[in-house]
Amino acid sequence: MSQHVLVVEDDDDVRNVVQRSLVGAGFKVTALPDGSRVQNILASGNIDVVVTDLTLPDCDGLALTRHIKEHHDVGVVILSGRSDTTDRIIGLEIGADDYIPKPFEPRELVARVRSVLRRTEGKARGTGNDTPEKVFTFSGWTLNTSSRDLRDPENSIVGLTSGEYKLLEALVTHANRVLSRDQLLDLVSSNDAPAFDRSVDVRVGRLRKKLGDDSKSPTLIKTVRNGGYIFTAKVTVV
């Protein structure tokens, strides 16, 4: 059965090029000019990858991407005219599996979609009942790697983006070890898209805020000058 790609793009010419390229590569394609029907189509459960623009007439593409990644087990490729590095960082930070700036080469788009499919399928094969649940505690906080929940000392769930969760898991599982930005990028990366040192700094800043860790004098995630970061709290596996 052909894998199904949902394309969300308001520019008719671009949408037609994307659709023709993917159909020519053997994919089944549903193409939409806006985000109004995205949730209903995803609810059907037969979409494998979403290719979406960020500038849509009826919704914000970043908000749409975040919602998709939080509620659906599909890959997301952002296809956008926003080529600024900050936009790429934000797109990847909120969970997108890849980010392709416009103008784009159709053959590269097809290759990137296939790459995302390989990764998402690999994750699906790698998840199963034989994977042991691990629960880490530190400074009154609890991180559950099965449910991917972070709970504060009052046992309330603190919401994390996919990128924030991966970074925290990497830090917790390598507690009291200095990790360079390159090492952290390797540990948290789940795609072949370009990665940026600054994306680690952005995630660390957000994690510190959610953990109540003073950025000027942190006690959990400390900055090591010319080294990277170190998670200094005592971590216990329960």
Backbone CA Rg: 19 Å
**Topology, number of strands:** 11
**In oligomeric terms, what are we looking at?**
single chain
- What's the total helix number? 8
Q: In order across it, which strands form the biggest sheet?
A: 2-1-3-4-5
Largest sheet: 5 strands, parallel
The stretches of 5 or more residues where confidence is low (pLDDT under 50) are 124-131, 191-195
Supply the number of structural domains.
2
The average pLDDT value, as a whole number, equals 86
Order of helices and strands: EHEHEHEHEHEEEHHHEEE
Cα separation of the termini: 43 Å
The CATH homologous superfamily of the largest domain is termed Response regulator
Helix content: 25-40%
Backbone structural class: alpha/beta
Write a compact overview of the structure shown.
With about 240 residues, the protein is an alpha/beta fold.
Structural description of this entry:
- This protein folds into two domains: 4-126, Rossmann fold; 135-237, Winged helix-like DNA-binding domain superfamily/Winged helix DNA-binding domain (Arc Repressor Mutant, subunit A, Orthogonal Bundle), CATH 1.10.10.10.
- The protein is of the alpha/beta class.
- The longest helix has 21 residues, at 106-126.
- Mean pLDDT is 86; it is low at 124-131 and 191-195.
- Helix 1 (12-24) packs across helix 5 (106-126) and helix 6 crosses helix 8.
- Helix content is 40%, strand content 19%.
- It has a five-stranded parallel β-sheet, with helices on both faces. It has a four-stranded antiparallel β-sheet with strand order 8-7-6-11, with helices on one face. Strands 9-10 form a two-stranded antiparallel sheet.
